[in-house]
Design a protein that fits this description.
InterPro entries: Ank_Repeat/CDKN_Inhibitor, Ankyrin_rpt, Ankyrin_rpt-contain_sf. Interacts strongly with CDK4 and CDK6 and inhibits them. This is Cyclin-dependent kinase 4 inhibitor D. The structure is a single chain. The protein has 168 residues and is an all-alpha fold. It folds into two domains: 1-66, Ankyrin repeat-containing domain (Serine Threonine Protein Phosphatase 5, Tetratricopeptide repeat), CATH 1.25.40.20; 74-167, Serine Threonine Protein Phosphatase 5, Tetratricopeptide repeat (Alpha Horseshoe), CATH 1.25.40.20. Helices cover 52% and strands 0% of the residues. The protein has ten helices and no strands. Helix 7 (110-117) runs antiparallel to helix 8. The longest helix has 13 residues, at 6-18. The termini are far apart.
């Protein structure tokens, strides 16, 4: 029997937020806590996971966690890890089918957020699988977001890619 109550959600979310892979595995495999169980704030473990804990993210996804669950601001985990520059975690998400063309409440895709923060490696990973022509609610493409944030290297790379190949 799979367990699913707030206390279990709190324990699983706490372990995920700490990046405690051993405890996450124990809760999922031995105690059979449902990966979709929410904590007292209505968040799943995947929504509160330590962003740099790619192994914890992978474990949660292997147990059926949905990578595209959005919070009240429209942020899915892909938005958070792209904004913070956690490429390894983003790779795990995209390998498990995360939708990187899902806009947040401001209309931004994960690539907009990575571009605005200057995370070139993340932008390079996202560009081939993202709609780089998508405009957020401010009317900006990822190139324009990078320019507005003085992320010249990212803006130049995107512009070069747009000029030489179709990315979407």
């Amino acid at each position: 029997m799979v367990k699913s109550d707030i206390r279990d959600g709190k324990r699983l979310s706490g372990a995920a937020a700490r990046g405690d892979l051993t405890e996450v595995k124990r809760l999922l495999d031995q105690e059979r806590v449902n990966v979709h169980t929410v904590n007292e704030f209505g968040k799943t473990a995947l929504q509160v996971v330590m962003l740099g804990s790619s192994l914890v993210v992978e474990e949660l996804l292997k147990h059926g966690a949905r990578p595209d669950v959005q919070d009240q601001w429209g942020f899915a985990l892909a938005h958070d890890v792209a904004r913070c520059g956690f490429l390894d975690t983003l790779r795990v998400l995209t390998e498990h089918g995360a939708n990187v063309n899902l806009p947040d409440a401001g209309g931004s895709l994960p690539i907009h957020l990575a571009a605005g923060e200057g995370h070139l490696d993340v932008v390079q990973h996202l560009a081939p699988i993202s709609n780089v022509q998508h405009r957020n609610l401010k009317g900006q493409t990822p190139v324009e977001v990078a320019r507005a944030a003085d992320r010249t290297g990212v803006a130049m790379w995107l512009k070069c890619q747009l000029g030489t190949q179709s990315l979407h």
